[in-house]
Amino acid sequence: NAGVTQTPKFQVLKTGQSMTLQCAQDMNHEYMSWYRQDPGMGLRLIHYSVGAGITDQGEVPNGYNVSRSTTEDFPLRLLSAAPSQTSVYFCASNPTGPFTEAFFGQGTRLTVV
Amino acid sequence: SQQGEEDPQALSIQEGENATMNCSYKTSINNLQWYRQNSGRGLVHLILIRSNEREKHSGRLRVTLDTSKKSSSLLITASRAADTASYFCATDTGNQFYFGTGTSLTVIP
Q1: Per-residue pLDDT for chain B (109 aa), expressed as one digit of tens each?
Q2: CA-CA distance, B79 to B72, in Å (whole number)?
Q3: Chain A contact for B97, CB < 8 A?
Q4: Contact (CB, 8 A) for B11 and B21
Q5: CA distance A51 to B83
Q6: Which secondary structure element, helix H or strand E, spans residue B63, and what is its range?
Q7: How many CB atoms within 10 Å of residue B56?
Q8: Inter-residue contact A75 to A82 (CB < 8 Å)
Q9: Residues in chain A within 8 Å Cβ distance of B27
Q10: Is B12 touching A (CB cutoff 8 A)?
């Protein structure tokens, strides 16, 4: 049972490039979320989904897009990367609600130069 | 501004001692959760306490919640070297989910 799988683990982007961070879960959870973690700060919610086809904004949504076409997958897209988006990104899935017990992936460390 | 703040920021104890860390938040909540993060890894859920609960136990963990003071504490009893990690509180406000800045716990063997 893999749980929540994030790819890639590491990525370096140039300013202005676009990319998609992948997240997949095999626990059949309805709820999934994306967070960023910066030094000295707790995790901050970017976007979340309460089911296939339904997404909503978190605390820091600007610069990021999401979609949820299947229960299993919840990709995070950066359309035009900026140095301020350098961070560690975590995906999570929740079995009973968007803000209840969360199962986290191992993270993607993104550097924008 | 961030909803949750932990203190202390860092805590160093001897193996076998108890560790207490605190979390304060600003607005009303549905529930409060504690997570552990080992260096370079994802977060692991430890315990969830609902707003109508005052205390909850799970193994060596004891969590209290005081909604009148908007604060929570996490007690880890009989600490082990494997408890060395960062600990975060997280609050569900109904339409948002906020993490605190974390307490870094070091347990010295």
Answers
A1: 457 788 999 999 999 999 999 999 999 999 999 999 998 889 999 999 999 999 999 999 999 999 999 999 999 999 999 999 999 999 999 989 999 999 999 999 9
A2: 19
A3: yes
A4: yes
A5: 35
A6: strand B61-66
A7: 16
A8: no
A9: none
A10: no
